[in-house]
Design brief:
2 helices, mainly beta, globular
Length: 258
């Protein structure tokens, strides 16, 4: 009798243990860890091309008169780097190491400050300190209108590829001959820049305009580079050299106000 009772108790204990283990297993199976949903967009890393150029100032000089603060200002600046120049010979633009001399220091008649002239042996358009531009002859793009007006895009070919310069903003020297102060934006459109690369966005024009001077491959990367004249005031000389290899605008300006 005692043995029968023990057997019944043992079977009951084993059955209870199995039920507990099954419930524990079922509890584990019912626990779901949800992972974040992956979409096709989350797997794509986009590399955007900037739609504006960088800016570097004070790397362009002009063969012209400069007001100076001390007697060695221009001499020291020109001696600080190997300056190059762009000039025209037999109708062809060329880049070479700058050949120049400095005049004696005289008084500027407008300001009364000491002034000195950079005299160019080759009648250079500009002197510049931009290492990427190497000496040599330039193949340039011909154009008939230096001012690119809004709604009058300029299309050209360069190394068998199509480009468009398109402006928006003010119209220089309109019907009444005056030039209002206002915004002007010039963009370059191409296969690389279908949405346009902003070359110039200028908000100051005091009887001045932005004018195209040269289109050529200055940095030898097979893409067009630009020189623009873009003064903000009629008593300012200001030029921009825009290179495609680093999407940078190099600027130089000179004041001659009285």
């Amino acid at each position: 009798m005692k043995n029968s009772v023990l057997i019944i108790l043992l079977e009951t204990f084993l059955l209870f243990s199995c039920n507990n283990r099954n419930e524990s297993d079922n509890t584990q199976d019912s626990t779901v860890i949800e992972l974040p949903e992956l979409t096709s967009d989350s797997l794509v890393v986009e590399t955007e091309i900037s739609d504006e150029t960088n800016v570097v100032e004070d790397v362009i000089l002009f063969p012209a008169t400069y007001r100076i603060l001390n007697s060695t200002e221009l001499k020291d600046k020109l001696a600080s780097a190997k300056w190059k120049e762009i000039y025209k010979k037999d109708g062809v633009y060329q880049i070479a190491y700058a050949m120049y001399y400095l005049s004696k220091i005289n008084e500027d008649p407008c300001s009364g400050y000491p002034a000195q002239v950079i005299e160019s042996n080759n009648k250079a358009l500009l002197l510049f300190n931009i290492p990427q531009i190497q000496p040599g002859k330039l193949d340039t793009v011909a154009f008939s209108n230096a001012m690119i007006m809004p709604n009058e895009p300029f299309k050209f070919e360069f190394n068998s590829k199509s480009y468009t310069l398109q402006a928006s903003g003010i119209t220089f020297y309109g019907n009444n001959g005056s030039n209002p102060n206002g915004d002007y934006t010039l963009k370059l459109f191409s296969e690389k820049y279908p949405k346009g690369l902003t070359l110039i966005h200028q908000t100051e024009y005091n009887d001045t305009s932005t004018e195209l001077v040269v289109i050529a491959d200055f940095d030898k990367d097979g893409l067009p580079d630009f020189i623009f004249s873009s003064p903000r005031d009629y008593e300012e000389e200001r030029y921009l050299i825009i290179l495609s290899s680093d999407n940078t605008t190099y600027i130089g300006d000179r004041q001659f106000d009285c």
